[in-house]
Amino acid sequence: MKIRTKIIFPIIIVLILGTALASFSVYYFVNQQVEKDTSSLLQSVLHNHADLINSYLQERENNAMVFASLPFIETAVVELDAISKEAKALGYQDQGLLDYEPYQQAVNKYYDFVKNYAQTYGYEDVMLLSPNGGRVLLSLKKTGDFGTELKENGYDGTLDHVLARAWRDMKQTKQTVITSFDKYAVSDNQPFMFIVTPALVDDHYIGSIALQISNQRLNELVDSGVGLGQTGQTYLVDANHSLITDLRFEQNVALDKKIETEAIEHCFFERSQVEHNQVEIMKNYNGVDVFNAHHYLPDYDWCLIAEKSKVESLQPLIRFNKILVVIVSIFVVGLFIILLLVVKKISQSIINLKKGAEIITQGDLNYKVGTNRKDEVGDLSRAFDLMTTAIKKSRADVDSKVEVQTKDIMAQKKTLEQQQQAVLNILDDVEEEKENVSLEKDKIEAILQSIGDAVFVVDASLRIIMVNQITIDLCGYSREELMNKPYYKVLRFIFEKDGKVNDIFIKTAIATGQVQEMANHTLLVAKDGRKIPVADSAAPLKNKAGEVIGCVVVFRDVTHEREVDKMKTEFVSLASHQLQTPLTAMRWSVEEITGGELSNEEKKEYLHDTLDSVIRLSALVNNLLNIARLESGRMSVVPKPVDLTQLIAEVIDKNKKLAQTSRVKVRFFKPKLALKKIKLDASLITEVVNNLLTNAIKYSGVDKANKEVKVKIVTGKEKVVVSIADNGIGIPRKDQKRIFEKFYRADNAVKKVAEGNGLGLYLAKMIIEASGGELWFESNTSGTTFFVSLPLAGSQAKAGEKGLA
Amino acid sequence: MPNMPKVLIAEDEKVLSKILSNKLKRQGLEVIQAFDGQEAIDLAKKHKPKLMLVDLIMPNKDGFEVLTELQKLGLNKSIYIIIASNLGQDADKARAKKLGAKDYIIKSNTSVEEIVKIVLSKVK
């Protein structure tokens, strides 16, 4: 930031803030004042109007009382009452009274006086009322009310109920009663009020008079917008919230308009508190925001409202604001320009100084800034020039001193170089040592990686400090995810039984310093949630002093071992069953033969059975032995040139009897060209072909009429393929994968043909593979074909302890 | 001998079936032979024997299936069922018992004489 900006910026900020603050303060105080003025204006108008209304109505009341006490009234009421009773007795009713000649004459006698009085004071009507029935004895409106009994005609009579109620109140209290305004049917439904005053002679009640007064005078009193500007007004509202005077801008609305505003509510709510000086901004009946003051008139239960619109009241303030903005703007802009000029002048000198300093820095000590300014900046420039001169002088001294010191430094440097050489020699030794250690570590790492089991090492705080690839492969975490983590956060060992964490063996190894085996049936939970059965141990890691500093954990995946175990168990179970069946037959036969119950014929038959069982047992044992040899790789293969066609023909021939009893037709398709002899171990191949053929016969078309087995030989370039096809029950898809397993028999095979030990195919496959060939099959529900392929080049000889059993 | 107790032998091994059958016939019993599980069920329904000897490993339906079927038919109450098998695992025994077998004989451990004795003690 340049100096100019630096100076101007804060000043501008202060200036703007100050101006804003000042403007706001002025605005605030002016606003307060305007509100205060409006308030006092409304208050004074209100009080003024309230006084006028009160005194006007008080005057009317006094006037009525004076009128009622005139002797004329006494005379008139007494006479008219007497004649009206007379007329009534003669059958004249209500307005009909006037038809009675004497009454008519009496009325005429008083009428002009009353009319004169009413006109003088501006009353709409003046009535004379009888003392007891409240009968209208005289009214200025001849068509209206004559003869009406206020006593009898209550709320719904021809006379407005307001008058009737007022008369009853007056009769009860013998006091003057002033009603509020109501629409008076007899007078065009215009709003009128009544003053009913008793006529008393020596405190004796002889009747009453009623004055009917319009709201015209009240309108005049209220409706002067005097001093309330363009929008201000006052109006009167009765206890029903109905207007009883006109509004400034709406004529003839009295009693037709209800004023439901907050101000009215407040006013009637605060009936007891007559004085209310607060002026508030509220919405008026038109929803316009107004300053509002109200005054309650307790004698009549009315509210007087004075209001003036907010917009108009605050008009002076808005004007003031405009002026304020203009003044402030001019002030700020002017100040800014002045500031700019001043700052420019100051900064020019500083820029000169800067330029001088730059020139001197470049080495020209003869440069002078030179100025004739009289202010601080001028002083500074002159001081700068003096300084330059001083520097020039001292520089020469410095140069000579530097020369001396440089010599010293050179000497010291030489010594340092010698020392450095010594240090470097030591460092070389250290480096060599470090390399050795690193080499050692690499060796350990290499050993660790080459171990076939998973290995990891934790320190005493159970953090993993070394891990080999097998561990990483097993658990699925990367090396980075494992290293330096507490092992139990990543390598979770749990008990297979209950899934609880098994960390005892590592903790115990560290605590006791003894090698610990992992509990049997421990699982490792891999990163992806797989649970891998593992086994092995934890060995404590000790330093030279024999203290435990960590733990080496070795474990391995025992999934495969488990499977092998399971297979072993199954094998033993099945093998024992297969062995026990012929043994049982032998035992029982011999028991019977020796038991002495049998005839000679039977004995002979039982001996044959025994022999069959022995043969079957021996075949089974042979199979098992062969398998054991093949599995352990101790089976010898002795290839000699063999005529495969002849070998197969012999096997078919040997099974002729079985085929006949099974009612199976065996067809042999020999190759068209005679097959050359192949080097094969004849006994092994015979075993396989025999096995496949007997299977085919046994399972061929169990449920069919035309049971058939086809044997074919097909020669290729390098191989000969023997196929043996039956039209039997087929091998179910779910069993196809497993039929070459030891003791495995397909479900449907077990159901159709109970015999069979489940070893034949397993054995056949092992033999063919040992002979360099392949064994496979194709199967569907209409039959199975087994294929044996053998190399035309023959089998490789294989030395072993045993041939086929 | 229409009034003799009937015994049904369910055994796929023909030699064993024959030896047992001959021996029981000599004891004066009426013997019916079934050579697979389905046949055993059919013959049991037809003849309502007093006792059955049932092998566990049989074609078509194994011994357990036969037991289940007999239980469904309610025949396990009227027929005294003895398992005669070479399977000797405790699990097999428990399963057979649960399915309504009353006795369990391991054939290779038992002489013909003993089997006949057991059968006779149960039919008479």
Outline the structure in words.
The complex is a heterodimer of chains A (805) and B (124). Among the domains of chain A are: 69-214, Beta-Lactamase (2-Layer Sandwich), CATH 3.30.450.20; 451-557, PAS domain (Beta-Lactamase); 634-791, Heat Shock Protein 90 (2-Layer Sandwich). Chain A is built from 21 helices and 24 strands. With 805 residues, chain A is an alpha+beta fold. In chain A, strands 11, 12, 13, 14, 15, 16 and 17 form a seven-stranded antiparallel sheet that branches. In chain A, strands 1, 2, 3, 4, 5 and 6 form a six-stranded antiparallel sheet that branches. In chain A, 51% of the residues lie in helices and 18% in strands. With 124 residues, chain B is α/β, with parallel strands linked by helices. Chain B has a single domain (6-123), classed as Response regulator (Rossmann fold, 3-Layer(aba) Sandwich). Chain B has six helices and five strands. Chain B has helices at 14-26, 37-47, 63-73, 75-78, 90-98, 112-123, and strands at 6-10, 30-34, 51-54, 80-85, 103-106. In chain B, strands 2-1-3-4-5 form a five-stranded parallel sheet, sandwiched between helices. In chain B, α2 runs parallel beside α3 (63-73). At the A-B interface, α14, α15 and α20 of A face α1 of B.
